[in-house]
Amino acid sequence: MARVHRANLHNLNRLRMLCELRRLKTMSEVAQVFLMTHSAVSQQLSQLEKEVGYKLLEKDGRGVRLNDRGEILADYAGKILALADEAQAALKDRRDVTGVLKVATFQSALVGLVPDTLRVLDSEYPDLHLECVQCDVSDGIAELLSHRVDIVIGEELPFAPTIDSPSIHRLDLYREPMVLAAPAHGRWRFPGSFEQLAASRFLLNPAGTIAGHWERNFCLAQGFVPTVVVESPDPLVQLNLVRQGVGVALLPSLVLGSVEGLDNVDIIPLPGNPQRVLFTAVRIGREDHPAIHALRRALHAARP
């Protein structure tokens, strides 16, 4: 690409659009990320082609895709954008822990981990503020790569595919065991063995979710297909229904510390001690930003 030196590569937004088109596949989705019209994104990418002196896109049915030169430039654009983030982090004074961090996280971390994390930040970094949004981990990673959030607090369930990418810096926070929560009394109390749970009623995550898939596979490994009375992605709803004697649930340990009054619930370790991993993820180049360091330290201090 002898003429790439002619490109105005200071226009990081156009490079981001190119990378997002490769990741998202359609111009319409790129337009949603940048809060622009389809035609405005198309114009920006056309301008990028003029700047580098090469065609970067080609027709693909009704849409477009990156051609070979587009793929090459997208590879370099990813490195340039990471370096831009790294430069911004390096320019920050190490003591300058201020501003707003946008955090994507999942429900049980929002309830069981974020309150103590905020208390640590209020004490040690009073000028750093969090804006948290609840979403599942895959959506959170997409928001991170689209520059809509600064950090993801994520979970990785047992035997699930590893959540990682060359574009993110992942730091594991800790591991915690998954457990069975059962009513202490009544018809659906723990029968004494996991094989006998075949006759129990279950409160599980929806079947199409990663958590729901793992829960059903766990039951299959014990020799039965679970009878599901309630499907809910909310572990607090599940735990509350267990307390009321509705059925049993497979839960992460973090949820237990956020609920008072578990006298009516028995917590039973699972065979094989399956564990989920809690982690944080940021875009490559942002991992040394003082505010990211501060939040990661606060999360470590707040862990159960």
From TrEMBL:
Family: Belongs to the LysR transcriptional regulatory family.
Keyword DNA-binding: yes
Domain of life: Bacteria
The HTH lysR-type domain, residue ranges: 10-67
GO MF, one annotated term: DNA binding
PROSITE patterns to which the protein is assigned, alphabetical: HTH_LYSR
Record has Transcription regulation as a keyword: yes
Naturally occurring in which organism (per UniProt): Corynebacterium felinum
Keywords noted in UniProt: Activator, DNA-binding, Transcription, Transcription regulation
Name of the protein described by the UniProt record: DNA-binding transcriptional LysR family regulator
